[in-house]
Design a protein that fits this description.
heterodimer; A: mainly alpha; B: alpha/beta; 15 helices; globular
Amino acid sequence: MLFNSLEFLLFLPVAALLFWLLPAGLRLPWMLLASLVFYGSFGVENLAYLGVVVVIALAAGRYLLAADAPYRAAVFWAGVAAILGLLGILKYYDSIAEAVPWLPALGLTSPAGFSFYAFTAIALLADRYRSPPESPGSGMHDLVFLAWFPKILAGPIERVAPFAEELRRRPAINPAFLSLGFQLILWGLVKKVVIADNLAPFVDRTYAIPDYAVPMELVIATYFFAFQIYCDFSGYTDIARGASLLFGIKLSENFRRSYFAHSISEFWSRRWHVSLADWFRDYVYYPFSSGHGALRMYLGLMLVFLASGIWHAGLGYGIGWGFLVWGALNGVYIWVERALSPVRRRIRGRLRGKPLGRIHTLVTTVLVFHLVVLSWVFFRAGNLGDAGTVLTRIWQALPELPGLLARYPFTAEHGFLAALIVSLLAIELVLEQKRLTRRLARAPRALRWAAWYACLFALLLLGRWQSEAFVYMQF
Amino acid sequence: MDPKPRPARKLPLGTIGAFIGIFLALYAAAFAIAERTVARGQTDTAFQRLLAARGAQVDWVVLGASHALPLAFGDVPGRLERDTGQSMMILAEIGAGPLYNRFVFEQALRDLEVKHLLYAVDSFGFGSPDWNEVRLGDRKLLRQMPLRLSTAGTLSEFVLDGHAGPRGLLDYLTGFSKLNPVDRFPQEGWRGAEDFDRSFRPSRHAASARISYLYPDGAPEPATVAHYLDILDGLFDSAEAAGVEIAVVKLPVPEAFRKALPGEETFDRLLGERLDTRGIPFHDLSATIDDPSLYFDTDHLNRQGVDVLYRDHLLEVLAPE
């Protein structure tokens, strides 16, 4: 039951309607039941994997609530090790067994969204271990926290305290919430079904055998992939947040118009998969680096990006060296940025309020975007050989790119896909201007409704409704 | 202390109703435009041809899969009319097995006065749901199927009988595929009439790829063949009940291609038994044109091939002396 399937579009309103019709005391169990039905629709065996993580998190998490319990550290580390061990075995065992002759292949697969609820469970244990009073929650709250269906497949990776507070607010029906929920679902679907899924076939064709593609195609496909993965993942998050709001539960904002970042650190900390970045910051970077000087800070930053690369690897991608390089490359970007930060601050200070300041912002935004696009090559190609082919062929063609551009036989498909990207950027540019967004929110009803209808008909007329899975579900 | 509960507010039901009402009106308008531009006024598919020819008297209706389509490209209906005065309508469809043919034929019996049915049989159509149940929900075909109450009725019956999924019916009734093409930028595919004048250079690789495509599950299982022969029986029952005379034909394919078809002998035997029981004449023309230069691809006759087929073999079936 993917978010972009007919089944989900029928399931969601029915589940939400019944939620509001039920007495308040039955709503939490209903949320849990709806979550199990949703997740079970991807395979009943998935519920067993979820069950194992839930049992570990619940058993350890309840124990850790008692601040004076005698074996807190042991229980915490055992819980984390069990969850990470399971995640590691499911993701990497068979890839390793392929390389190690004496290890038998077990044909293991990681169920959809496993690492997302594994990370959520680790966050629960870590928060309870550090500060039990700040991470309260009943057993039922914990269950819903772990299994809540809008976020189970690909996040956002929530924290127990704010989520439990959302649950304790006893949500009441609120038109503003419902309206925002529907807006997010609609915009998320447009991003996924209209933009990402229309870009996907061109990218897939070109990246299938990079040796067969001409350099211009590789350039175009690489740019297209940047927008495909952005729309796929941020579209998923918007739908997740919107679906959750239909039940009166707010989820955290995971993406903020990512390609308008002015720096790589802004991209990763405030604009792209923010909940994962926060997770790595709080549970990997701070414990490793905090208060240990510059060297540990730099090592910690690289550790975070390498860990992120390792997390993406495994499964169908084998060991996934491409993801490791992707992670390492981003780590290097951050290193360079940190090293240059005094210079950057000085330049920004001098240009503040001047016309050149705007040009500087534009140039840095474009530069950051291209650095990110470059790293996506390793992400999309999956293996180093293909990534090398793509980059080498583009590099070799760079001097003659203007000529190639003029001679390239652009088709209606290119035009259509480029128009989708330009429309996305135009809309996001408007959304980036908070004052303009607020004015639009107060615009006459006819104008607002016209925007809704435009989105609905974009979905109907331009959407690719082949129920393509979301890219990040596999991780 | 528990956080402050969120206050409840009344839903503006009137506003929601107005929004949905306007949406439905806009949708209906878009549907009407798509129906006119995509589904009606063209004759690319069997259902479009039937709509265009409503009420006509037709001597021969031809059903089958893509092997029967070159008859239309080569204007066999026109030549038959000139030679014998008999009219013919080709209602074959690409990748259509007996279930899809039956769906088309039910509509043909409603729209036309049919005298004879020529069923061009292909073993691949009896080997997989891909060419039958799946085709009933194929969005490319649904896109070009004019919205008609009678077609909706037949499709509903197929859904109730378990031959088609409700998704296809929903698509048809809402016109979704007419508004939203499944293949917006098609890559290379079968070009049919555009390649009709070409001569094909034999290629073992192309033939093998084509056979793998036609027989996705390998050689058809006898039980599967029997199931689809039952469906063909149902089609023949409808035809006979309407007083339509039936002839079954197997159209030519090149020798190398024919010999590579999986499970062809079993299929021939099972088909032969059914047709014998019903007393339906069967004309096996599959080995009559072996020259690969008379085909425009691995297994479809080109213009010259259709000329030879019509002149030397088919005319005898359609208008026996």
